[in-house]
Amino acid sequence: MEILGAGHLTTSDQFFELNELPRRILFIGGGYIAFEFAHVAARVGSQVTVLHRGPRPLPLFDPDLVDQLVEGTRELGVDIHLGTEATGIEKGTDKLIVRASSSGEIRLFQADMVVHAAGRVPEFDDLNLEAGEIEWEDQGVRVDEFLQSVSNPAVYAAGDAAASGGPPLAPVAGYEGRIVVANLLEGNHARPNYLGIPSVIFTIPPLAAVGLSEDAAREQNLKFRVKKEVTSTWYSSRRVAEVHSGYKVLVEDATDRILSAHLLGSAADEVINLFALAIQSGMRLASSARSRTGQVAICFLGINRGFSREGNILSARSLQNFLCPLDFLSGVAMHGEENSALLQAAFVSLCSEFRDTHADQGAGDSAHCSSHAQPRQPCHDWTCGYEWAQTRDRQ
User: For the chain, what percent of residues have pLDDT higher than 90?
Assistant: First the structure.
């Protein structure tokens, strides 16, 4: 960060090494680090201030849900200043003084620690890339579809060092690194695929997103409908005293393809993976004209009941916590007939053989597995529709 007194900044790595937090902490920036650390610091008793130069923090996330999160963060006691750019840091006798510009006015903020949370850029200045005929820009080395330099075929780049167009996430950097290794060892054949990569802000509650934003969908001239709701009055939020929660889902009009999901609420960081699977597999919503039960309702607010696993796949018992008869995507509930088996196949395995085998099954008494010994007892086989019938009947 190129501001006066930048030497007084504490990095995010140094923040992790602290044994105790100071009384007053100021974060410069309005991204992942600022909000996650602010929630931690505020909850242990520090006075927290966040300075963000833009009009809205967390620009990679849905603005409506970000507004909810900002409101909740302020209610936590965090002093958030938007449209405020830090210009310098001075060291006083027993404090740090941050000078900032806001609406043409100079403002001063006092803190015991100032944390750099404005993001990082590739450190190319001392590499002399021009000597190697390596073209680069602010986002990194200019690369092609194989992550190979467009100007020097001997060079590959990944992560923060590559202008690949991928989201700025650590798992994506590792993924790109594996692509580069494969292409170096076996020749150019592997290409990164960024479809359906979820991202999460680990605040309380967490904010999660996968797929296109509304603006990005419009820029691609997509025709879509938006399902959104503030869910703070729902039981799943009220029972954990969650004041700020909600969702937004984008569905393409012509194809019923799920374009994106944006979730704010307890365990949204887990449920977003179900939507990622749906987007990656090209899953479409069932049309109400073609389905006896109407369109599929995917309710992420059932997540508070837990997330169990059987081996490496979701069990039907845990999956039913996420699929519940509430108005969510399309206004018509799913009560567990042919769509239940389809969703099990799409979300749990994404295997066509499961779709072919179970897509046409109902969830009535006959929709149980061949090894189901006692037809009137729930089955715990995740491929068996009988468990769903029992769940539906209890509801």
Answer: 60
